[in-house]
Design brief:
TIM Barrel, single chain, 26% helix, 275 residues, 9-stranded mixed beta sheet, 3-stranded antiparallel beta sheet, globular, alpha/beta
């Protein structure tokens, strides 16, 4: 997402990972060095005050020490700031920035769209296309590092669920492994966004922490803490979700409730609550 646009809340369900997934992932992953964190890539401190500002930056509330902002925004001065990047899909106004063959297409040649957000899905089905797509996304990651962010949050890891079967979880893991290797080379930690069913592969893919929307609402928080420990940041959008997350993890995880559009403080609809 670029600029102050809507938060990206996905309808998620935990899919069983069958044994075949493990067999499929090995040929897709790059060398182990890409998935190995560099010494200087430090994840956000666990159980820290957090604010989700991907809809537009504003002065963080008191007690906040970790912030997530869009890649075109600036880091929060003096705070640990995560750089949001839409890595697996394309903003509606950025279609022309991508070569046509890198957009996922159906049997009729039409671009496959994530209709909930009106975003084209990128085609990470082959190693060659993954390399080309990663070249552009890694350029954004370079910008995050140059601007002073400490970590990157690549969104839409779960786009394979909307790919109409044209690529699966192993291709998504192979692609994010390319991004994690590059982020670590730049000294940035990298977070897994949602996608509970792939949390168990965080070591293979080189992911350092998790940024999770509505794990309280969908009873998924434990699926992330099982594999990431306390390195999990939780964003809820409902009172119910916040209550559930706080009841189970307020003493160990970073948890915040934001309005669905994550608008800046002072804008109509702004909401921020914590445990």
């Amino acid at each position: 997402m670029t600029g102050p646009t809507a938060a990206r809340v996905k309808t998620r369900s935990i899919y069983a990972i069958v044994a075949l997934t493990v067999a499929l992932i090995t040929p897709f992953l790059v060398s182990s060095s890409a998935g190995s964190p560099a010494a200087e890539a430090t994840p956000p401190p666990p159980h820290a005050g957090f604010d989700y500002q991907i809809g537009g930056g504003y002065p963080p509330p008191a007690g906040v020490s970790v912030v997530s902002r869009d890649r075109e925004d600036s880091p929060a001065p003096g705070l640990y700031t995560i750089c949001y990047v839409n890595a697996f899909q394309v903003q509606p106004d950025e279609l022309d920035a991508w070569e046509p063959d890198l957009l996922l297409r159906d049997d009729n040649g039409d671009v496959i769209i994530d209709e909930e957000w009106d975003e084209a899905i990128l085609d990470v089905s082959t190693a060659g296309k993954r390399e080309r797509i990663a070249a552009k996304v890694n350029g954004w990651i370079d910008g995050c590092a140059e601007n002073g962010f400490q970590a990157v949050e690549p969104d839409n890891y779960d786009s394979y669920e909307r790919s109409q079967g044209r690529f699966g979880s192993s291709a998504a893991m192979a692609f994010i492994t390319l991004l994690s290797g590059h982020a670590h080379d730049k000294g940035l930690a990298i977070g897994q966004k949602n996608t509970a069913e792939l949390a168990e592969f965080r070591d293979e893919t080189g992911l350092d922490f998790a940024v999770v929307e509505e794990c309280g609402e969908f009873d998924e928080c434990g699926s992330f803490t099982e594999h990431f420990g306390n390195d999990v940041i939780v964003i809820e959008y409902t009172a119910k979700g916040l209550a559930t997350a706080c009841a189970g993890w307020q003493d160990s995880l970073s948890i915040v409730r934001r309005d669905l559009d994550v608008v800046p403080a002072g804008a109509d609809g702004y909401l921020r609550q914590t445990c």
